[in-house]
Automatic annotation (TrEMBL):
Record-given protein name: Transcriptional regulator
Natural source organism: Brevibacillus aydinogluensis
Residues annotated as domain Cyclic nucleotide-binding: 1-71
GO molecular function: DNA binding; DNA-binding transcription factor activity
Domain (HTH crp-type) ranges: 134-200
Cellular component, GO annotation: cytosol
Cross-referenced Pfam families: cNMP_binding, HTH_Crp_2
Key word Iron-sulfur present: no
Key words of the record: Activator, DNA-binding, Transcription, Transcription regulation
Superkingdom, taxonomy of origin: Bacteria
Taxonomic classification: Bacteria, Bacillati, Bacillota, Bacilli, Bacillales
InterPro entries in alphabetical order: cNMP-bd_dom, cNMP-bd_dom_sf, Env_Response_Regulators, HTH_CRP, RmlC-like_jellyroll, WH-like_DNA-bd_sf, WH_DNA-bd_sf
């Protein structure tokens, strides 16, 4: 299956159809339950997708990296069933349903890609359910490896605080795990990024989680 980050189509070409928005870190892009009208393209930054449980707690579903779409499930102008929060200062482009229609006239081959994206979101929901059954180490390994797959290299542009925000784990828990991994030679910690030196070992930790791509 072709995914949005594996296609030869370059979204940068179509930004003229969208409305540029700067989103400060920790700010909400759209809320669960709000009415949707179109989708977003992440140009810069990092966004986490969460859903609120019946107990009022946020549950991480997805991490969106630059070059990917979010909020696409409300192209039918229904309400969002998730909340999108900028992990760090981000730039997004919003494409309204009307703008999407214009885009389809120019590049109709994008339509199957959108259908595939919606299908992948169903797989992400299953992945998120399994994530909560994992240990803290397994959750961090899964998140780092997932983002590695998106960027197609083993340098992850996140900080320890970003990892804590994205997983919902405490900063102390994240710090202890990463410190141990660094001592074991699994990762290297550089300024505002992690270098995965032993992805094979991290993947063994992640064997209990199904493979899923972020969109």
């Amino acid at each position: 299956m072709v995914s949005p980050f594996e296609t030869d189509l370059k979204w940068e070409t179509f930004l003229k159809y969208g409305k540029r928005q700067f989103v400060k870190g920790k700010s909400v892009i759209y809320y669960q339950g709000s009415l949707g009208d179109g989708f977003y393209y992440l140009h810069k930054g990092l966004v986490k997708i969460v859903t609120s449980t019946v107990k009022g707690k946020d549950r991480l579903l997805n991490i969106v990296v630059p070059g990917q779409l979010l909020g696409i499930q409300t192209m039918d102008r229904q309400t969002h069933f998730t909340t999108a929060i900028a992990v760090k200062d981000s730039v997004v482009y919003h494409f309204s349903c009307e703008q999407f229609a214009k885009l389809m006239k120019e590049r109709p081959e994008l339509l199957p890609l959108f259908a595939q994206t919606v299908n992948q979101k169903m797989r992400i929901l299953l992945y998120a359910i399994n994530m909560k059954a994992l240990s803290s180490e397994e959750q961090i390994a899964a998140l780092l490896l997932n983002i590695c797959d998106e960027f197609k290299n083993y340098e992850v542009p996140l900080t320890q605080q970003d990892l804590a925000h994205c997983t919902g784990l405490t900063r102390i828990t994240v710090y202890k795990i990463l410190k141990q991994w660094k001592e074991d030679g699994l990762i290297d910690i550089e300024q505002r990024k992690f270098v995965i030196k032993r992805p094979d070992v991290l993947r063994k930790l992640n064997l209990s989680a199904p493979t899923a791509k972020t969109v």
